[in-house]
Structure formats: C-alpha cells, structure tokens
Amino acid sequence: MTVFAVEYVYAADSTAALDEHRPAHRAWLAGLADDGQLLTSGPYGDGAGALLIFKVQDETQLNDLLKRDPFAAAGTIAGIRTTEWTPVIGVLAPHAS
After folding, report:
1. Residue 95 per-residue DSSP state
2. What is the distance between the alpha carbons of residues 19 and 58, in angstroms, rounded to a whole number?
C-alpha cells in the first residue's frame, strides 16, 4: 500500500455548491476512513482547498476514488495535486510501506 497526499483547490465561485454538497462529501470520506483508505482529511483554514491523506494500492486506485467524490461531481474542485508521500515521524509513520 502507498500513502498519497492529495491537495484540493476549490473553484473560486463554489462556496454555495461546497455548502450544498459537503454532507455527501463528508459521508463519502467517512466511508473511505472506515475502509482504511483515508487516513485523515480536512479543509485549509482559508477555505481555498483541503488536504487528504490516502493509503491505497496505487495511483490508479486513488484516481478512481477521487472521481467518486461528490465535490468532484458538483464541479467544486478547480485543481488536484497528488503526491506519493512517506510519513517518517508521528502517528501516520506506521502507514508507510
């Protein structure tokens, strides 16, 4: 399994859509957390985006998951950056392969 850091950048005019779709987005994330695929996530303090940390088989699986995000379906995400990440110290370090 591989750990990935995913950064979302929200569309500038998406506040209403984010508010509308946030319950479905969070339910989707909670399911992934229950399955062990999402280690943690949360919005940036300025509301411009979010950071999500996934543990999945590979980038193909990650991309398939991200397409299912209700925020993606609603068009609220202007940009996504995915980076393979190796946590070395702290509570996420045991998840490194």
Report:
1. G
2. 31
The total of other beta-carbon atoms located within 10 Å of residue 3's CB is 19
pLDDT tens sequence across 19-45 = 999 999 999 999 999 999 999 999 999
- SS3 (DSSP) at 65: helix
pLDDT at 96: 84
What is the sign, positive or negative, of the torsion defined by CA atoms of 17, 23, 24, 29? positive
Q: Are 55 and 5 in contact (CB under 8 A)?
A: no
Q: Which two tokens stand for residue 88?
A: 């070395």
Does the pLDDT at position 97 exceed 90? no
Give the pair of three-digit tokens for residue 40. Answer: 């943690």
Tokens of 62: 């990650």
Name residues whose C-beta falls within 8 Å of residue 21's C-beta, 6 or more positions apart in sequence. Answer: 70, 71, 73, 74, 76
Task: Give the pTM.
Answer: 0.93
pLDDT averaged over every residue in the chain: 96
